[in-house]
Amino acid sequence: MIFNLAKIDDLNISEKTIFKAIYQYKSISRNDLVKYSNQTPSRVYRLLNSLVDQDLVIETKEKHNSSGRPFISYTINPDSFYILGAYITWDFFSIGLCTFDGKILDATEPIRFQQETPQDVVTYFKREIERFLEVHEIPTEKVLGLGISVPGPINQDKGIMWNEYHKINEHWNIIPIRDLLEIEIGIPITIDNLVNAALFGEVQRGSISLNSNTSAAYILFDRGVGSAFFTPGLLTKGQEFSGQLGHTIVKLDGNRCVCGKNGCLETYISINSLISRMKNRLVNLKGEDKMAVSTQLQQIEMMVEDNVNSLDFQEIVQSVVIALGNFIHLFQPETVIYGGRIVDFCPSLIMESIDQIKQKMDISKNIQFRKSSFDNNLLISGSAITVLEENFHVSIPFPYK
Ligand SMILES: [Zn+2]
């Protein structure tokens, strides 16, 4: 598959600036563009004409502004570019085709990992991309790139993932996933962490609105405990950050963690640790059978309901209160979004932890806690949006105003 260099790379810096501003505002008048871009009216006019001529931007005559005069507004042509979003979790993989602003046009159902190798997954992605483009009659030069999110830790610069703690299967140790995809598909690849993609996905859904005064965190409770933090102009990331919350120590000399330290948060509330803590009380299920994970978590939730005051329950809650409470103290996010299978199947663990954080930690009453559905659509659109950041550093459409 040969992808031509997407048009956006051919734009000059001034055109990119204007294009980016229109993207961020969604719809903006020429006067406002002049105001926010610090360029002369005639230059903005020329740049706009050029973008319209290239079919990247659409001009629409609006009836009137506040002074009653008609004016022209500019929006991004939704047919200007398309983005592909894909993800690989510890248990599933999937891919979708999105519009420029991350709306999903088409997507595959999540495929549950059996014994697939990295090459199997890459071949599957390639086949699905070809199908998407054929069905939707999209020429390859309109595809800006493929954003893929994977579990940490990752080396973002080199595009390498390694499943140090939670292995997908024996074929997934250290994987140069970006090179594999680029060689097979021939398209620019952006790689990011699953939790960052989930945060982008929530912004795309409109469930959080990020502007110059807001900040938000995403906390994932699943095989591991991951975190992403957004503050205006900066998504705090890096291969090391996303996994750090799960490996903060909540009990000195606690149980041995997969990372080699003792007493990490993940020894209390990752899927594997919950299951192994409760194993002797679970109905006998094959431990390695991934189909059984949700059943096991549901059983754990039933046990929790029956034994709300059990030592295990209180210990687990306490570990979350310490780690997440301190995280909130340090970063002061205005919104804390949480998702993952532990949230879905053991809600009482998370709800009790949040209640105790509110009661015991002196945190602002304005902090909003919000549940997220960590699902196929969230990860596909969130992963797609990571491409925008790579291409013109505008992952999140938030107004400057
Ligand atoms: Zn650890």
Output the keywords.
401 residues, alpha+beta, binds zinc ion, 3 domains, Nucleotidyltransferase, domain 5, globular, 13 helices, Arc Repressor Mutant, subunit A
Summarize the topology.
Blueprint: H1 13-25, E1 28-29, H2 30-37, H3 41-53, E2 57-62, E3 71-76, E4 82-88, E5 92-99, E6 104-107, E7 111-112, H4 118-135, E8 143-150, E9 154-155, E10 160-162, E11 174-175, H5 177-185, E12 189-193, H6 194-205, E13 216-221, E14 225-231, E15 234-236, H7 266-269, H8 271-278, H9 292-306, H10 311-331, E16 335-339, H11 341-345, H12 347-360, E17 368-371, H13 376-392
Parallel strand pairs: 4-8, 8-12, 13-16, 16-17
Antiparallel strand pairs: 1-3, 2-3, 4-5, 5-6, 5-7, 9-10, 10-11, 13-14, 14-15
The structure holds zinc ion.
Zinc ion is lined by residues 247, 257, 259, 261, 264, 266.
Characterise the protein shown here.
With 401 residues, this protein is α+β, with helices and mostly antiparallel strands. It has three domains: 7-76, Arc Repressor Mutant, subunit A (Orthogonal Bundle); 82-201 and 377-392, Nucleotidyltransferase, domain 5 (2-Layer Sandwich), CATH 3.30.420.40; 210-371, ATPase, nucleotide binding domain (Nucleotidyltransferase, domain 5, 2-Layer Sandwich), CATH 3.30.420.40. Helices cover 39% and strands 20% of the residues. It has 13 helices and 17 strands. It has helices at residues 13-25, 30-37, 41-53, 118-135, 177-185, 194-205, 266-269, 271-278, 292-306, 311-331, 341-345, 347-360, 376-392, and strands at 28-29, 57-62, 71-76, 82-88, 92-99, 104-107, 111-112, 143-150, 154-155, 160-162, 174-175, 189-193, 216-221, 225-231, 234-236, 335-339, 368-371. Strands 4, 5, 6, 7, 8 and 12 form a six-stranded mixed beta sheet that branches. A hairpin with a 4-residue loop joins strand 5 and strand 6 (104-107). Helix 1 (13-25) crosses helix 3. The two termini are 42 Å apart. Residues 1-5 and 395-401 have low confidence and may be disordered.
